[in-house]
Amino acid sequence: MNFDQTEQRRTFIKVAVGVSSASWVSWSTASSNASANESPLERQLRSLPHKAEPMIVSGRVTNPQNKPCCGQSVMASTKPIVTDADGRFWQATSTTEFKNTNMPSSKQIANHQLSQDASGVWRLYLELNA
Asked: Does the pTM of the predicted model rise above 0.85?
């Protein structure tokens, strides 16, 4: 892959996700047509490659008072992650495994960042509300 192709594949977006009580569906079943109700994160995740590429999912879970939530379970792959004393979590997975995981509801996601680094590893950072 040449430099121009690498630059085109990189994405970086940080947005506040709209509040909704609807649960997210498995990313592998999303249609290729963008839905009017689809969030920016859902559009980005739908564009992740179908082949297994390395991915790191990390983030932090806080309560409404912005205090860390220790021991909170987060699904980012087939195995749940438990947050540490500061409410942080981290897990290495693959894009295909992540796409088959049911994400937290969009109501729980305060912010996110999705990017691909120079070595081809996808990185998703999530700020979650408990």
From this structure: no
